Amino acid sequence: MTRGEPAIEVFTDAPALATRVGARLLERLASVQTTGRVPCIVLTGGSIADELHRELVRLTPTSDVDWSRIDIWWGDERFVPADSSDRNARQAAEALLDHVDVDPDRVHEMPSSEGGGDLTQAAAAYAAEVRAHGAGAFDVVMLGVGPDGHVASLFPGLPALDVHDDIAVGVRDSPKPPPERISLTFAALNRTRATWFLVTGAEKADAVARAHGGADVHEVPATGAHGSEETVWFLDEAAAARLPT
Ligand code: 6PG
């Protein structure tokens, strides 16, 4: 599979998608670990990510994965206090990371707004953390997709879409609340072997069809994300409904 040929896998519903993606992720992580390398994954937020995270907890006892040897990153984060339920990191902790045996030193949360920190400096700090770990060579980047086609916090029409010389950016005017966020750029997100889109729900069908119909990245940001070895769109039937048959 090459970068130009994204694969599409369609599932009946979100639970079926979460079960298959969960199993596939655990297989991938265990396979990397057998080589002695520590795999790196990028988590996303949103409802399908939450469902996947819970499924990973359910599937972990029957897998060979050692969660203490996985580097865990985020594609984006809401720039809010650390204990806010809006935080992708908090959601991932509650659904997944508090229930598996992670090494806290390998869980790379994006900075919060705690203490009134500056958004630009917070994004720069996360970029420095990614760089300190080898500037990113992710195994799997997972991305939810919004009805507007956004991925991470890269929204249609925003300047962050065109930042190619940095790893992370501060986003001040997100059309989806909260307005202040940190996002990896495409330059960073695309330093990955695999990009997996996780998309469920009828409200995504238009964005999915446009992404596969050659839309420009400024209109449908999801078109800007791809893996060096594989790009897979995991869809439920509702999200796939407007793809050509
Ligand atoms: C955010 C969300 C968002 C989410 C997509 C898909 O930061 O606002 O995390 O980017 O990933 O909107 O969300 P669903 O899976 O809930 O549709």
Describe the structure.
With 245 residues, the protein is of the alpha/beta class. It has helices spanning 14-34, 47-59, 88-97, 119-132, 186-189, 205-211; strands at residues 7-11, 40-43, 71-74, 76-78, 138-144, 168-171, 181-184, 192-199, 230-236. Helices cover 28% and strands 19% of the residues. The strands form 2 sheets. The chain has a 6-stranded parallel β-sheet. α6 (205-211) links the parallel β8 (192-199) and β9 (230-236). The radius of gyration is 17 Å and the shape is globular. 45% of the residues are buried. Bound molecules: 6-phosphogluconic acid. 6-phosphogluconic acid is lined by residues 44-48, 76, 88, 144-146, 153, 176, 201.
Key descriptive features of the protein:
245 residues, alpha/beta, six-stranded parallel β-sheet, three-stranded antiparallel β-sheet, 9 strands, globular, binds 6-phosphogluconic acid
Give a short summary of the structure.
The chain is 28% helix and 19% strand.
